[in-house]
Structure formats: structure tokens, C-alpha cells
Amino acid sequence: MSEHLPETNYLDPEVLQKLGDLELVAREVVEGLRVGSHRSSLRGFSTEFAHHRQYAPGDALRDLDWRVFGRTDRYYTKLYEAETSFDCTILIDASASMNYASGKVSKLEYAKFLAASLAYLVLKQRDSVGLSVFDSEVRAYLPPRSAMGIILEIDRLLREVKSVPRTTIAKQLHDIALMMKRRSFVILISDLFSDVDDIRAGLDHLRYDGHNVVVLHTLDPYEIEFPFNGTWLFEGLEGEESLTTQPERIRDDYLASFGKYLKDLKAGCVASHVDYAMVDTSRPLDALLSEFLHQRATTLHAPSAARP
Predict the structure, then answer these.
(1) Could you give the C-alpha distances from 7 to 11, 143, 236, in angstroms and in order?
(2) 140: which strand partners?
(3) 123 three-state secondary structure
(4) Which of 23-32, 35-44, 173-182, 222-231 has the lowest mean pLDDT?
(5) Cβ atoms 139, 157 nearer than 8 A
(6) Are 147 and 129 in contact (CB under 8 A)?
(7) What local confidence, expressed as pLDDT, does residue 293 receive?
(8) What sign results for the dihedral spanned by CA atoms 124, 125, 128, 129?
(9) pLDDT averaged over the chain?
(10) What are the pLDDT digits (tens) for 185-207?
(11) What backbone phi and psi angles, to 5 degrees, belong to 77?
């Protein structure tokens, strides 16, 4: 029976906001990380398939390669090894829509905490992490390096950015792909408010260049649930016209359109061999990261999870 872990120890985004120091935020989140009843070893985060060997009693069943078994009728175990000089590049969407917040923490602020925590994870395993910030264009690009100072750069860059509406996302991802000189593990943190085909075009460029890509779809809980009541003035953050209405009248249509958008987006990610995870900005950071790492490890070892 698995151990139940109460979420009372998890760090709330508003608590993190009060800490102020981004490196302290990242350290607090990462040091408290747990996957199940164990600390995260990051297995599946920076490991790659190396080779096969014939199955021997005692080998983990999750490492069996069922595709090879289907072809040969023999059991073989997949062996993994850490990449040498592993590079991770975090892409942060700082466009105007990321400033939305139904509570005290905006999507952009949450993205900063998330990026800093991921950077800290990578640096703790002595690998390199880089950063790019974009809105309607690429505002900053820092090549991967293994210095903890990158976390301070995240804080500085996002404090300085003056968000503008973003019309597309493909162009920015194309531009960033051209800047990246080495194969990297790319993590995109964005609300992805763009046409799904446009998003996929940008993701495909990164994949065609050999990068492993993860999308962390960052959304406010009000965008997911649309719990508004009464009469509201909705202001367009990406250049759309303002709308005054009673949300009850449009809730069903909104949720139906939002559901179709999510379905199409997830299908596009699957077709492009891109990992997708939704990020609800009301969730505690370490709980979300723990779940994300666990899912990556599970996906990596699943029989159907062959990577191109």
C-alpha cells in the first residue's frame, strides 16, 4: 500500500511570492520534492536509452522492451544512461496574457517560480540550463551553463520585461531554434493562446532539430473552470476587444470551445512527439513538479513510449 503524503507541507504559490528571493524559492521547492514516498532521483529527466541486454531474473519488469519481444519472442531489458553534458533550455512566454491572475499570483509569476525550480533541479545534477524569454519576439536568450546564477538571470529578465500582446508563437520558437547550437531538452512554459496549427509548427521545428520537447501549459484556474458570476467586463490581453456580459450566458460555449482547443492541442503534441502537461497556477509548486517528474519517469519506461 502506498504511503499517503499530506499536501500540508507543500508550498503554496502565494507563500513563495512572499519569500522574495527566487533562488530561495527554487531551493525550498526542490528540497521538499517527493515522488511517492521517495525523493526524486530525476530518473527520466536527463537519461536516454543506451542499449539492450537479455533479461535476467531480478530485472525490473518496467524496463522490458515489449516491441523487441514482439519481433523476437525474447525478453530484453532497456538500459539507460545519463547524457554527458546534458543541456536543458527553458522557454518562458512573457506576453501580455501571462499577466492574468484571478488570485494574487499571475501566470507569469508562477512561470518564474516554475522555471527557477526546474533550473535548480538541473543544476543540482551538475548539468547545464539555459533560458529564453519571449512575447511578440525573443527578448532574451541565455545559452545553457552550469552556474547557479542563471536563476538570478530569470528573476532579472522577467522583472525587466515589458509584456506586449503576442500574435503567434511559431515565429518565436523558430527564432529560438536557430539560436540553439546543441541538442537540448526544451521546456516551454506558456499559456499557448494561439492557433493550434501555429503552435505545432513551432514545436515541430524544435523536434526536427533533434530537441526533446516538453510543453507546460500554464493556465489560471479561472481560465480552466470559468466560475464567474454576475456581470463582468472582460478585457482582451492580446489585443482583443473588451466584452461586458453575464458569464452564465456564455459559460457552456466557453467551456465547449476551451475543451475542443485542449483536445486539439494535446493531439497535436502527441502527433509531434511532444510531452504535454497542464499547469494550474493554483497548485503548490512541489506537488506539481513531483507529479510531472513521476509522469515523465512512467512515460519513459512504458512499453508504448518509444521515442523517435
Answers:
(1) 9, 36, 35
(2) 133
(3) helix
(4) 35-44
(5) yes
(6) no
(7) 80
(8) negative
(9) 78
(10) 999 999 998 899 999 999 999 99
(11) -100, 135
Whether 102 and 158 have beta carbons less than 8 Å apart is answered as: no
Q: Which three cell numbers stand for residue 182?
A: 546543441
pLDDT digits (tens, 9 = 90+) for 8-60: 344 667 777 777 678 877 887 877 665 443 344 444 454 455 556 676 776 66
CB 298 within 8 A of CB 60: no
Please report the DSSP string for 193-262 in residue order.
-S-HHHHHHHHHHHHHTT-EEEEEEEE-HHHHH----S-EEEPPTTSPPPEEE-HHHHHHHHHHHHHHHH
pLDDT at 295 over 80: no
- Per-residue buried b or exposed e for 83-105, using 16+ beta carbons within 10 Å of the residue's own CB: eeebbbbbbbbbbbbbebbbeeb
Q: Is the pLDDT of residue 213 over 80?
A: yes
Weakest-pLDDT range from 6-20, 105-119, 287-301: 6-20
Q: Which three cell numbers stand for residue 127?
A: 548539468
Cite the DSSP H helix spans in the chain. 13-19, 22-31, 66-72, 107-124, 149-160, 170-179, 196-208, 221-225, 247-271, 285-301
**For position 77, what pLDDT does the model report?**
73
Q: Which CATH class is domain 7-37+85-301?
A: alpha beta
Q: What is the mean pLDDT of residues 69-89?
A: 69
Cell numbers for 13, please give them: 504559490
Question: Which residues have a Cβ under 8 Å from the Cβ of 18 and sit 6 or more positions away?
Answer: none
Choose among 169, 210, 168: nearest CA to 189.
Answer: 169
Q: Cα dihedral sign for 135, 138, 144, 149?
A: negative
The identity of residue 75, as a single letter, is Y
Domain boundary assignment for the chain? 7-37+85-301, 47-82
Strands 87-93 and 185-190, sheet pairing: parallel
